[in-house]
Amino acid sequence: MDTKQKELNITTIKEVLRQYLQEKGFRNTPERYTILEEIYNMEHHFNVDDLYLLMMQKKYHVSKATIYNTIEIFLDAGLIRKHQFGEKTLTSSSYEKSYFDKQHDHLVIYKKDSDKEIEEIIEFCDPRIQGIKEAIESAFGVTIDSHSLYFYGTKKD
User: Fold this and answer.
1) Per-residue pLDDT tens for 71-84?
2) Cβ neighbour number for residue 142 with a 10 Å cutoff
3) Are 28 and 21 in contact (CB under 8 A)?
């Protein structure tokens, strides 16, 4: 993505956050926008510890509690998505930006001979999954708004 598009995206998500905070009656703090911008500049999944370390390295004065509270706001506002990849970390939830992303699924590859230490996460989109979703909607008379699909494994030798 080019720099101009990235700047437009950041402007858009900041406006989404501003409207959300106003609608919910939450305070409009600069820390929330800074955290949001850092997330949207990332190119990978992250957890709270990753984000906190990044913020500290960049000399932002923000507590881990503020990050946790802000993450909850971003989840509710639809700006990020939460994942449980099954990794063994202090904070077991991972997150990714979601406002501009299309639905996709994940292949979680663990390091061999490790206790669920993630080597790589591959995002993929397979059109056959859309067909399965439509079949489920038809069979059960429902509308599926979203889904999550995870495959877990290790690389073959």
Assistant:
1) 999 999 989 988 87
2) 9
3) yes
